[in-house]
Amino acid sequence: MRFRHPDGSTVHLAYCTNVHPAETLDGVLAQLRDHCEPVRRRLGRDRLGIGLWLARDAAHALVTDPSALRGLRCELDGRGLEVVTLNGFPYEGFGAEEVKYRVYQPDWADPERLDHTTALARVLAGLLPDDVTEGSISTLPLAWRTAYDDARAETARTALRTLAERLDALQELTGRDIRIGLEPEPGCSVETTGDAIAPLTVIGHDRIGVCVDTCHLATSFEDPHTALDALNQARIPVVKSQLSAALHAEHPHLPEVRDALAAFDEPRFLHQTRTATAAGLRGTDDLGEALRADALPDASPWRAHFHVPLHAAPAAPLTSTLPVLRTALTRLVGGPHPLTRHLEVETYTWQALPPELRPRSRSQLADGIAAELALVRDLLTDLGLKELP
């Protein structure tokens, strides 16, 4: 979906296809048919943006076979779909029964992360619509925090500088400007937007910036205005923003609240949990760990890294951090000029919700994704953006 900002620029809105992960190119093509096109039809649009997630094998097939890349481009066009952004965070296995810590491998100290992201950039350059020259790729924020020492940090920085040089060469060759956004996430070496400033300043290349995920921002109790002001002052570009909402528990000391939270403690994804205390931010790596006796202070609200559907906050006594998303979106695109032109709804946890909240069919999933996009569409038009055909 495209929107005209009051300054005349185009803002793109997509949804991320990691909600129906596929490891192979055939699986990606099936996604377009079975999921993406039905969402477009529900929204009554001739064109819908999708943020593709391409696992290692699918990306390799596309970058080594020009005919396969042309075929994917034709399939997108035929189904009324377009791609200006990729999710390059998960490498493979995102549909596994247990993902947890595996999603952070390989990290930016591993040469395979550089090779994979380079391949994604080459693929994206071939998928961008004819009238679009800028593409974005979100990626993990360097590494998970453990076993990430100074030597690995320097290796990661060197890899990102090398990537920037490759992206320069790619633009010279294709005319397509591809940028990368590190996506701060709780528990990683870059946990907050503030944590991103120092390493990105050292890297010192405007092709490497930040992907602001509003669920992660909220989980770490970051104020959107403060966070975005700091990035702006440091001249760190916001390459893209993933629009998502975290799970919020206002009174985690109450037994009924803990019971409600326990329903979201599931075995597939990691749900880092945080609380803001007078002594600073405290947290655990997963929701189940937080629910153990005395594992986390419970005098103040908890937030868990669980991407809940934007249009459907969980039932009381829980809620979501949708207000943080609204504030962030106002700042990102509500000013005289957008801070980013790439927005992506990223609720990949539909099938990890408590059983009674999960979609029971492809049709119900498409209904839910369309409802999320419709909510964001309304927020954007309320901010003065005009939806384009």
UniProtKB/TrEMBL annotation:
InterPro entries from the UniProt entry: AP_endonuc_F2_Zn_BS, Xyl_isomerase-like_sf, Xyl_isomerase-like_TIM-brl
Gene Ontology MF: a single term: isomerase activity
Cited Gene3D superfamilies: Divalent-metal-dependent TIM barrel enzymes
Keywords of the record: Isomerase
Annotated Xylose isomerase-like TIM barrel domain residues: 150-237
Domain of life: Bacteria
NCBIfam families: TIM_EboE
Protein name listed in UniProt: Xylose isomerase
